[in-house]
Design a protein that fits this description.
Blueprint: H1 3-7, E1 12-21, E2 24-34, E3 39-43, H2 50-58, E4 65-70, E5 73-74, H3 80-86, E6 88-91, H4 103-115, H5 119-124, H6 126-146, H7 162-174, E7 180-184, H8 192-207, E8 211-215, H9 219-225, E9 228-233, E10 236-241, H10 243-247, H11 250-260
Parallel strand pairs: 3-8, 3-9, 6-7, 7-8
Antiparallel strand pairs: 1-2, 1-4, 4-5, 9-10
Helix pairs in contact: 4-6, 4-7
The chain binds adenosine-5'-diphosphate (ADP) and magnesium ion.
């Protein structure tokens, strides 16, 4: 990374973040700085605390100690909706979509729920609501196209191929116009063709200026996609650097690659 990138102030910062479950320390004094516009990989063996850390970032769970700052705001104890409104989006390991709604409706609802939720407009009806609906629909159509899902716009989400459902879950997150999106194993369950499409979608998302933190087991995808990679083992950060640096790190090979191969 050039000095210019290092000089920029981070979009997201975690300091000494710790989360225990009973006697188990799932995330242990984790420090992380994520720069705007980067694609950061978060890897590590099963049970190393990756999902727990993501949950701490989204507010799905709250840390025992430490702090998380996003866009300069201390969000350590804030609720998920406040974080979403601040621009922190997330996709899920199993797609969180309404299976009986169409793809377009899913994305439309995604934006409406978080950004246009002004119930009194709906109650009053009238031109404001209709205009918001029209704008929402146009935005949803655009997001679907961006995610490569135009062909499924009118299809019931539950009937779409699994890879398309996962892209739809990302589109749903994008519809809230995040400045950063967190992804937990987006390639899990995808065939290799779908994984390639997902990689391309992640690049398009980054090219729009949206920062990505991605947990991924598919090391080829991590290597080709991520600017930097953070490696966890037993809740502790054991390495951080470019994919190439991390790949040859001895501790990483012991903890992660060593166990895998
Ligand atoms: N809600 C929970 N209650 C108890 N233990 C949990 C809970 N969530 C995660 N853990 C434990 O925390 C550790 C880290 O889990 P997790 O964050 O899911 O790891 P990863 O995503 O890296 O596989 C594991 O030992 C897991 O069993
Ligand atoms: Mg996990």
């Amino acid at each position: 990374m050039g000095p210019g990138v290092e000089a920029a102030s981070p979009l997201l910062t975690a300091r000494q973040v710790t989360k225990t479950f009973g006697g188990l320390t799932a995330v242990n004094k984790l420090d992380i700085d994520i720069q705007p516009g980067e694609i950061r990989g978060l890897v590590g063996p099963n049970g190393s605390g990756k999902t727990t850390f993501l949950n701490l970032l989204t507010g799905f769970c709250i840390s025992d100690s430490g702090s998380v700052t996003f866009r300069g705001v201390n969000i350590t104890r804030q609720g998920t909706h406040r974080r979403i409104r601040l621009g922190l989006g997330r996709s899920f390991q199993s797609p969180q979509i309404f299976r009986d709604m169409t793809a377009l409706e899913n994305v439309f609802i995604g934006s409406y729920r978080y950004l246009r939720a002004e119930p009194y407009h709906a109650l009053l009806g009238g031109s404001r609501t209709r205009r918001a609906d029209r704008e929402g629909l146009a935005a949803a159509t655009e997001v679907l196209e961006f995610a490569g899902l135009s062909q499924w716009a009118g299809t019931r989400a539950g009937s779409m191929p699994y890879g398309a459902q996962k892209s739809l879950d990302i589109a749903r997150a994008l519809s809230a116009r995040p400045s950063m999106i967190l992804m937990d194993e987006p390639a899990a369950g995808l065939n290799s063709g779908e994984a390639v499409q997902l990689t391309a979608l992640c690049r398009r998302i980054r090219d729009r200026g949206i920062t990505i933190l991605i947990i991924e087991h598919n090391m080829r995808m991590v290597m080709s996609l991520c600017d930097r990679v953070t490696v966890l083992d037993h809740g502790v950060k054991i390495a951080e650097g470019t994919a190439a640096e991390v790949e040859v790190n001895e501790r990483v090979q012991e903890a992660y690659l060593g166990r895998k191969h």
